[in-house]
Amino acid sequence: MHALPSDLIVFERGWLSSNNLLCLGDAPAFIDTGHTKHAADTVRRVRDALGGRPLADIAHTHLHSDHCGGTGALQAAWPAVRTWVPAPSLPHVQAWDQDALTFGDSGQRCDRFSAGHALVPGQAVRLGAHEWQVLAAPGHDALAVLLFEPRHGILMAGDAMWEHGVGVIFPHIDGSGGFEHFTDTLALIERLDPAVVIPGHGAPFGREGGAIQAAMARARARIEQFHAHPAAHALYAAKVLIKYQMLDAESMAHADFQHWLEHAPALRTLHRQHRPDLDWHAWLALVLAPLFGKGVLRRDETHVHDGA
Ligand SMILES: [Zn+2]
C-alpha cells in the first residue's frame, strides 16, 4: 500500500503510454505525457482534473516516445505552459533532432514539441505545490532523471525502476553505456529510501510491506543476468521494440511489417549483439517465433496484429 498527498494524482496508463503524475496547486504541473497515440485522451484527463485552471508546467523523466508523446498536444491546449526536459536534451528538442532524441533509431514516432527549461541534476524544481530534486538516472536512458520529493518521500522514477522487471538498457545497445549505470541508479534510489515509487509503467508501490525492497532485489537479479549474458538482453530488447511498434500500429500488412523490421536500425544492432552467427532473416524468424507462439502478436493471411 502507499499514500500520496491528495494534490498528487497518478494516471496509471497501459503499456504504450507511460504513467503520468498531475501535481495540483496554484501552478499545476504534469510529469511525463504518454504516447502520441493517446495524446487526445491525455489532454482530456488533464483538463477534467484541472477544472478550468491552466496547466503551468510539463516535466519529463526522459524523452522516449512513450513519455513525451502527449507534450505537443498539451502545449497546444495550454500555450503558456513551461516545458522542462533533462538538460542535455534541451538543444536536441529545440532543433528537433530526431536522431539525437532516439526516435529515429528505434523507428518510433513522437509529435513535435518545444521546450525552454532544463532539468539540471543537483538542482531542485518546483512542480505543483512541491519542490522536487532532480537526480541523474542513467541506465534505461543515458540522459534520464529522477524527480524526488523529499518531504513525503515520493519518487517519480520514470523507467529507472519498475515493480516487476526492468526496462531495456538502451545505452548498452548503442554502446554509450553499460549495465553498471542501471545498477548505480538502483543504488541511488536505495539511498533516497523513497516511501512511494511511481514507476513509468505499472502501479505505484511503497516501502510499506517491503514492496520497494523486493522490486530492488528483482531488478538487481535481472541486471546481473544481463551482465552475465548480454545476448539475453539483446533478445529481450528486440522483442520489446517489436511489441512496442505493434502496440502503436495495432495491425500492419505483412509487407509493411517486413519493411519496418528491415529499417529499424536498432534491430540490426541487436542481431549482431544476440546471434551474429545467424543470417539476418534466420535471426528475425528466431525472434518472432515466440512472439507469435505465445500470442504476443497474431497473424492472418494479410496482416500482423498486436495480440493484446
Ligand atoms: Zn517507458
UniProtKB/TrEMBL annotation:
SMART domains: Lactamase_B. The keyword Membrane does not apply. The keyword Repeat does not apply. Keywords: Hydrolase. The lineage of its organism: Bacteria, Pseudomonadati, Pseudomonadota, Betaproteobacteria, Burkholderiales. It comes from the Bacteria. It comes from Ottowia beijingensis. Residues 16-201 form the Metallo-beta-lactamase domain. This is MBL fold metallo-hydrolase. One of its GO terms (molecular function) is hydrolase activity.
